[in-house]
Amino acid sequence: MTDRTGRYASTDCYSAAAVAVLLVLTSAMLLAMFTRTEPHPPLDVAPFALGPFLAASLAIGTAAYLLVARGARWGIWMALLFALSALVSYGPQKYFDPAFPRIWPAVIVAQGAVAAILIRAVGAMRSGQGSAGW
Predict the structure, then answer these.
(1) Using CA of residue 105, residue 106, residue 111, residue 117, what is the dihedral sign?
(2) Could you tell me which of 62, 54, 49, 60 has the C-alpha nearest to residue 31?
(3) Pick from 16, 31, 68, 129: CA 20 to 30 A from residue 59's CA?
(4) Cα-Cα-Cα-Cα dihedral of 20, 91, 116, 101, to 10°?
C-alpha cells in the first residue's frame, strides 16, 4: 500500500497485535457461548442478542487487522471501532460482574489491548495520519 506521496505506508504491528488479542478473546467468548462452557456469556443482553453482536464485532476486527497489517490509512480507525465493540464484553462494567473472579484474566488482557489501540489512535490523530476525510 502506498500513501499520498507514493511511499509505502508502514504497518502498525502494535495495533495489529492488539487487534489479534481482541480477535482471539472474542472468538473464545463466542465459542463458550455456543458450547455453554462455563462461565459463558448470556445469549441476550439489552438491546440485542449477543451472538450476532459478537459476529459483527469479529467481522469488524478482521477488517481492522487486515487494514492495520497492510498499513492502510484507515486501519487504526477500524481498530478503534473494534476496540469500542470489545468494551461491551470486556469493559470496566465487568469488575462488578458476579463472574469476575473467573473471567478477570480475559478482562484485564482485553482492556490492555483496548488501551494499546486507543494510544495508537491518539498518536495517529496527533501526527495527522489517518485523517483523510476528517
Answers:
(1) positive
(2) 54
(3) 129
(4) -80
Could you tell me the three cell numbers for 96?
462488578
- Is a pLDDT exceeding 60 seen at residue 131? no
**Which tens digit of pLDDT belongs to each residue from 12-47?**
889 999 999 999 999 999 998 889 888 877 777 777
CA distance 65 to 106: 20
Q: Give pTM, 2 decimals.
A: 0.83
Q: How many CB atoms lie within 10 A of CB 101?
A: 8
Backbone angles phi, psi at 124, to 5 degrees: -65, -40
Cell 484507515 sits at which residue?
74
Residue range 83-110: mean pLDDT, rounded = 94
Yes or no: say if 116 and 124 are a contact pair by the CB < 8 Å rule.
Answer: no
Q: How far apart are the first and last CA of the chain?
A: 20
Task: Write down how long the chain is.
Answer: 134
The β-bridge partners of 49 are 44
pLDDT tens, position by position, 60-78:
999 999 999 998 888 999 9
**Cα(108)–Cα(114) distance, rounded to whole angstroms?**
10
